[in-house]
Design a protein that fits this description.
transport, 22-stranded antiparallel barrel, 718 residues, 6-stranded mixed β-sheet, mainly beta, globular, disordered N terminus
Length: 718
Amino acid sequence: MKFKASLIALSIATALAPSLVTADDSDIEVITVTSSRMGKPVSAIPNTVTIIDQEQLEQQFRTTKDLSTIIGNLAPSFSPSRQKMSNTGETLRGRTPLIMIDGVPQSNPLRSGGRSGQTIDPAMLERIEIIHGANAMHGLGAQGGIINYITKKASSDNEHQVSFDVTVPNNLESDGISFGTSYAFSGESEQLDMIGSVSYRNNGVYYDANDEMIGVDTTQGESMDSQSADFFIKLGHNFDESRLELMVNHYNMENNGDYMAVKGDKENDIPTGAVKQEQPWEAANNQVTTTSLSYTHENIAGQQMHLQFFNQNFEAVYGGGCWSDFYDPSMEGSDQVTVCGTGANGESLYYEQSRNKSVKWGMKASMIANNIADSGVNLAYGIDVFSDTTEQDMVVSGASWVPESTYENIAPYAQVDYDLIKNLTLSGGVRYEYAKLTVDDYKTLYGYGDKHIEGGSPDFNEILFNIGASYQINPSIRLYTSFNQGFGMPDIGRVLRDGDNFSGENPSIDDSLALTPIVTDNIEFGADYQGEYFTAKIAFYRSSTDYGSRMVEKEDGSGSFVIKREKSVIEGIESNITAYIGDNDDVGVNIAIQNGEYDSNDDQNVDTDLDGANISPNRVNLFWTHNFDNDISTRVQANFFMDKDFKNASDEIYSSFDGYTTVDASVAIPVYNGTLSVGIQNLLNEDYYTYYSQTVGKDTRYFKGMGRTATIGFTMPF
């Protein structure tokens, strides 16, 4: 079966749950992307997206279950995985993406925390849709694009499936063994269709290429030495012209807390390590429940209606530490805290850790009118309503670090497509964003200024536009261009909790410019070629914002970040070529090159390179898949991360990244009615430091990447 092209043009109008329609494999493969807001053929879509379908997911699962790694393997403009529970610094086109499950936001705009990448087990997914570039069709947060995890759908046949997998490190140490299992069922009756699954995964410790244990991130979150479980169910009922569907997913990931970090030395090339020792605090964990109730009707006065109500309950506990930041004289001698040391000024140091809690509610409503009055005009319009209440508190003392904050948003929108002449389609849209942030009076922690901050309810208004054109020169070649605007907020929690963001005798959140929204402009030019023997796609983009949000790690070694508001510009090229060699082989290359700068001196001119917390490395991915006549299939893939120097306004190098190359190989063999797979990640046992560790990490987060691992899996339907 031909390898589906990774880069598929997708307009800003596509979003919640696109589906793929393919022509006979004997012809040039034609892929149409449809949407619950507006469906259009590829020839009319002026943007870029990556579709990771079920076949590609299964190929990647042979070597890894880490979603960030999988996305980076197939969409190289996404940052390399940190290989941790935290996804802080993982960007798309150099900016933070909006992560969704079936259109339900998983990202936490008020207090990010870097845990939105760990909210579902990959075994529950049918495909992943990645919309590249800033856009506003789903509102808040899509500065770098949208990553939408589409969950599986019920089949007409009653069936069950079980799967098992075991991963072992190169040194075969027993504490490095990971294993997972899942069970899924699917079926339908006259009244109801249903699919459900449960999964469990136990991760051992990770080893690098030198068979040394990789260091643990006890604060932001660690995926090694952890357990995770997922429960997923989807129920649906079809009426004559409509459908009602309920989806619930509950995900829980907990670190076992059996290892402590051993501080590294970045200057002397000594990596952060780990030693078996019980953590003296609650180990980091994630608990997330996502619920969606959707209703679609195919004919209401000749229009299609799509209605979705959703909820997400999110709680993330971060690991502890012996901190000076949380020292408070009023806590001296209190039973609520545990003293673990003495600071440079004689102050007590406390064991402490924080917890993020977020509750989201929302509604998305849209109507679609196709070919209005036989004019060739298609119209999609609707309204989104969203509410997010977030707080970050301290687990030990119970103190509030980020006060309870409520973000409320209402956004009507309209999108129009028009076939101006044959093979030329114009598109345009507008979205009005009204948002209000409500925070009561509060006091920052003693170590963060000990300031009384007056609460308030600042509101924001933004009108966002998109426009595009797509021209099909001939059946094989297409050109397109588009302009899109995205809407976002800075990490509000980081702003509110730090007293340095407020000044004056009576500081108030109403006076803080750091809370101003972020509007990002994304310009894109692209070309596609789809032929019988190969496909080729290339896109150039420019992403800019006059008042962006840049993460900067504090120099105190705590691993915490502050937010800088500055102008920034990112430019890049994405390209892929896939060649079909005979009926059984696909060979391809994916390329992502990008460069980003920010304004370091507030003169409205960008002059300093964005660092690894804010932009991805340049990258080339190669792959070769082969399908044997006996249904055995193989895949070999290589990831080349290029060297990169980061320069300041004086053209001096302030940070460097030493590139590296990893190679993965896998095979899938039909056995009885199931499939046996064997995969090797980092086949050549490359010794490297991760991108994040090299460009951002300090001595406490100077982590090596994972060495060679082998995974054996078996899947059996019955």
